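User: I've been trying to design a sequence by hand for this structure and keep getting stuck. Would you show me what you'd pick, starting by listing the structure so we're on the same page?

Assistant: Good idea, let's start from the same input. This is the structure you sent:
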């Protein structure tokens, strides 16, 4: 993980190199004894982590084990990481194409994933408490709620989250939001080349691989980020101004311009994806602007001269 994180955190490295993916070579003859190896309290089982982090698993020395042994080993690997393709090989002989240009850390590749990649509703448990799981949630999430939840998740559980990635449907955004993470390092963006179709079902799909993952808690936490009419109504109630109120907006560094609130909790395509403005104001000069914060530094009650 520290090596993988370097590609995200070190600008000098990321300027000339990219992390294509993580390939784990597995010894089919001896891997089980390493997976079962007991470590001192507080120490991690490196073999389990290497399987969990993988984008590709090369199951080597298949010529030295029986078919039943091979099936058992493959199930053990799949219990830890259900998403990495497993390729059988002997003497580590594989096609170069199968281990290069994986694009395991490419956000656009996340959007091009096999649809079935994120569609598993099963949770694979392992006696070392390492598991992989996926969550599918219909509907749109509130971007601010998502960021708060994700920040809290990484702060409190980051060391236990080996890998995560997903595609999220964010309210007030035409573009899909794609993300990936390694431990506490997170990268996400809206992709202008992948917008939701008008007839397309908007839903979010997330994948987690890690230790001591609580699927119910993760699903409930993410579901709490959904944007609902009730949430919008509650935020609207908390606004200082109502439609029709006369206000002044800061339109320059030292300039306040009078106008009238004509809409609340609004979004249009001139705004950032996922952004919701507390107010739209029609200025006295006829121009329409958005007040992006309900703050006296941005919008205030009319001050009489």
């Amino acid at each position: 993980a520290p090596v993988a994180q370097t590609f995200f955190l070190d600008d000098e490295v990321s300027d000339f190199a990219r992390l294509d993916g993580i390939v784990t070579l597995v010894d089919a003859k001896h891997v089980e004894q390493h997976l079962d190896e007991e470590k001192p309290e507080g120490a991690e089982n490196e073999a389990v982590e290497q399987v969990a982090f993988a984008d590709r698993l090369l199951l080597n020395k298949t010529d030295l084990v029986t078919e039943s042994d091979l099936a058992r080993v493959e199930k053990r690997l799949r219990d830890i990481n259900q998403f990495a393709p497993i390729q059988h090989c002997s003497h580590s002989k594989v096609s170069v194409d199968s281990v290069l240009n994986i694009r395991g850390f490419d956000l656009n590749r996340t959007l091009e994933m096999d649809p079935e990649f994120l569609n598993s509703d099963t949770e694979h448990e392992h006696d070392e408490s390492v598991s992989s799981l996926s969550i599918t949630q219909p509907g749109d999430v509130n971007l601010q709620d998502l960021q708060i939840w994700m920040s809290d998740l990484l702060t409190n559980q980051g060391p236990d989250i080996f890998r995560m990635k997903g595609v999220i449907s964010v309210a007030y955004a035409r573009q899909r939001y794609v993300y990936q993470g390694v431990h506490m390092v997170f990268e996400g963006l809206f992709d202008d080349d992948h917008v939701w179709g008008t007839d397309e079902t908007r839903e979010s799909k997330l994948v987690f691989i890690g230790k001591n993952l609580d699927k119910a808690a993760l699903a409930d936490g993410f579901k709490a980020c959904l944007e609902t009419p009730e949430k919008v109504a509650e935020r609207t109630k908390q606004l200082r101004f109502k439609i029709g109120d006369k206000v002044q907006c800061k339109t320059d560094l030292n300039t306040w311009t009078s106008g009238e609130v004509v809409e609340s909790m609004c979004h249009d395509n001139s705004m950032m994806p996922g952004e919701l403005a507390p107010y739209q104001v029609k200025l006295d000069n006829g121009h329409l602007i958005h007040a992006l914060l309900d703050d006296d530094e941005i919008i205030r009650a009319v001050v009489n001269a």
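That's my pick for every position. To get oriented when you compare it with your attempt: Residues 175 and 191 are 6 Å apart (CA to CA). The two ends are 61 Å apart (CA to CA).
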